[in-house]
Amino acid sequence: MSAATNSNLFTRPAVLRMMAVASVPGKIILLGEHGVLYGQPCLSVAIDLRVGVEMQEGSAATVNGRPLDSRRHTYIKHAIDKYWQGEPLEVVTYSKIPSASGLGSSAAITTASVACLLTLQQSFSPEEVAQRAFAVEYEVQRGGSPNDTSACTQGSAIVLAREKRDHFIWKISRKDRTWYVHSIPAPEMDIVVGVTGVKSKTPQLVKKVRRFVNYSGFARELTQDIGGWVEEGIAALAHSDFVSLGEAMTESQKILHTLGASSPELEKLIQASLRAGAYGAKLTGAGGGGSMIALTDEPEKVAIAIEKAGGKALVTSISREGTKVWV
Amino acid sequence: MSAATNSNLFTRPAVLRMMAVASVPGKIILLGEHGVLYGQPCLSVAIDLRVGVEMQEGSAATVNGRPLDSRRHTYIKHAIDKYWQGEPLEVVTYSKIPSASGLGSSAAITTASVACLLTLQQSFSPEEVAQRAFAVEYEVQRGGSPNDTSACTQGSAIVLAREKRDHFIWKISRKDRTWYVHSIPAPEMDIVVGVTGVKSKTPQLVKKVRRFVNYSGFARELTQDIGGWVEEGIAALAHSDFVSLGEAMTESQKILHTLGASSPELEKLIQASLRAGAYGAKLTGAGGGGSMIALTDEPEKVAIAIEKAGGKALVTSISREGTKVWV
What we know:
Two copies of one chain form a homodimer. The first copy, chain A, is an alpha+beta fold. Chain A has ten helices and 13 strands. Chain A has helices at residues 3-11, 74-83, 105-120, 126-141, 147-154, 202-215, 217-238, 242-258, 264-275, 299-308, and strands at 19-31, 42-57, 62-63, 66-67, 89-95, 157-161, 168-174, 177-184, 190-195, 280-284, 291-296, 312-317, 324-326. In chain A, strands 1, 2, 3, 4, 5, 6, 7, 8 and 13 form a nine-stranded mixed sheet that branches. In chain A, a hairpin with a 2-residue loop joins β7 (168-174) and β8 (177-184). In chain A, α3 packs across α5.
């Protein structure tokens, strides 16, 4: 321990070290992936698999006891570098969201980190968290949309659209693009996630679909059809009409399959879920691996069907609570 | 494959094979362990970590693809032997309850198995499930109380008592003992479970406390004090008074510690939870290892405190839904 650190410890008693904890839900894209990249709306739901991040002023910058590292802790370090000028922070994370599964693990960690940093500076507000968490993701990923960070911040169900609608909560702009975020009412619902175990390569998938869309008028129409199913899904959600919502999911999946975003592993878990009686099922996120979701009121039955088909199943529900912070 | 099996397959198409799925919550004892063995009441809560069991008529008796085995699948096999005379059953299990953690994993698997078997015979009812699931546990364990199987069957919060009270749902008798089970109203609540990783040796713990109680009038009084805190807890629950409920938990823990049911690992996680601001914390189940629980409305904050103190934390909520079955 250096003399400087020691003197810090003596001049500032441990009990006065500031501390904040944030709890943030994961998210799934219910409807609209790939379409959203071509101006179509997107419907996402926060799920009750959560992450917690604790930040406390200390003598050295650490994450879970290891030195803060730009490779291992990319998003946390970027958030701290961007939004913190105080003492070194000791960070501890707690996560129930499997990483690289399309469930918004990195968006949730980023959102929780930003929420802690703002809380430590007494300037927490949901919109501030959503704006700044997106800024971190955008800079680290050199692009992207504010969908995941807004869903993690707000909780419940959100609609991302290019125009302002009812239930508007905030807008976020980058370069010539503006996204309007809306928090829409949603009923209790059970969603079973099936993780294929095949890592989704988002950038490659996005490029592959983009080539198809640029080349083919048919593919461009398909992205508009995805947008149409998002609108159907939003209407179904407003009426707690799970049959229509499930249909919108399964029909969207057919389009995503045609666009080349599905995979044999995803199709297997989707078919198993539908045979087990799910209202609807589709991939979630970029596809090509990653995870699928099934809407059902028989969650363990669908979970068993997914596991029998070779996937790892997670039974989740919509999370009404977005980002929460405690000191 | 034997000729007999083959002929079975031909005479009875696969599509007509009967199938049932049961979904069952885990449970925690909120207040009253050890006291309940001396006639005191006990308050338990079902939690939203669930197990699923699927049973389908097939050509061979299997569990998750392996032959049904009395050592590996003790409770499932006992339930099938006792309550099934039909075709061999192919059983698949799905569990989010860590085993041997005091969260009722074996009671939940037993309850789910019995619920499936009754559903296959069109004779499912919650009381029937509770009675028969207890019968299986009682025979396998050569004793015990119907607390866990009743909690798993009913969901929400239950009180086990030696006399009939308000909210009575069923009674269960063995030899000269009768337990009355009550389903009491309970608010939404978050409970963080801290698993020590040290296996709880329930029979040894129960014997150790019994020797103390038989030998000492002071220890007998302590078991009555546990009962007193259960009554306080029931009253607090009825008023959603988490401060008083937390106090009942923490005071019960002091008694359990005096009775010799705690352990250094449990104490460490309990103290960490209380320092992190939990309303109350105590061991759950027999003690001497196993798990502790903390009542809090800052669950991820307490979870991080538990993990920093060396435990494995599980954020759970009360589960309003008991056993559910689907065909």
